[in-house]
Amino acid sequence: MIRQAVILAAGEGQRLQPFTGTKPKVMIEVANSPILEWVVGALRDVGIRDIIIVVGYKSERVLDYFGDGTDFGVNIRYAVQKQQLGTAHALRQAEDIVLDEFILLSGDNIIDGETLASVEEPWSLVYKRVDEISKYGAVQLDDGRVVKITEKPVGDDTTHFANTGIYALEREIFDRIGDETSMVAVLNLLTRDLDLRGVESRGLWMDVVYPWDILRVNSQAIQFSGRTVAGRVEAGTRIIGDVQIGANTVIRGNTYIRGPVIIGKGCEIGPNAVIMPSTSIGDNVMIGSHAYITNSVINGGVRIAPGSFIERTVISRGCVIGARFTAESGTAEVKVGREYHCVETGIFIGEDCRIGANVTGMPGTILGNRSSVGSMKEVQGIIPDRSNVL
Question: Mean pLDDT over all residues of the chain?
């Protein structure tokens, strides 16, 4: 059995701005935990506790959170990729501490133990059957043997097998890397003279590429069963379905919560608030009376004043939002880099923003980190970090 893993966690994730302006992509939270924590947990669940994490961009956020891994039931060591030159280059940074056999995987995909359980021996690639292959690497197989991996194929309807970026390898891979910086390029060369086997995953594997993917993955990640209420729930509150409420949280009277919902520690919700399904609320969040929140991700330390309406929205840490704020949800064309996407979404708010009373955010709005919006404003489009909308 393979007992060591290398997690690649050095990248920035530029298509996930503003959320990666202050942290690496792997530290984006879904269901109140960083994506990377889901990966570490999946490895632990299959008995892999010797973990090497390759860090780079804003590495201190990873090191401060995970430390040596003791709090997560694993042993973590770190390698540093000073320049983000590609996945093969990142792996090479861990060469001195890798054992004979190991699993290589990305730190920015949500996975579970079932995804890893089928990987039993080296020279395996895990693929996932998907409906739309264009945004993934397409894996072509011949009787279970990997023939070719094509990155982001265009018009390729010959396969629906997506490369998950999970590989079981041996130390020999370091002799194969050469000057290549991409693991896909290395593996395509390797298939010429080595039998690389494809293994289908039937477990959880979801990637986060764009801001709206945070909502999709969060919705999947909070599919749990049962109710855990560690805080205090006042009279008149109704809780329906699967709901987790953290310690020292107070749910004020006549609040309505319909799960699946996760609420962290030290929060104050309501009174007369409504929290609807697929919503994650981090630690130390205050949500005022008569607020309505659905299908959203609210990170720790956020303050939301009374009368706010928030749908399909991601709000980063430390934001303060005035009364009667409205995050509109609908179809929007969103520009990410040079790409245009037509998506059904709300808005995306970076860290430490200040938003006045009676503000409306139009669908697809991206508000950069540490920005301020005056009262009675309507915001739309892409607003850079540290902007003042007056």
Answer: 94
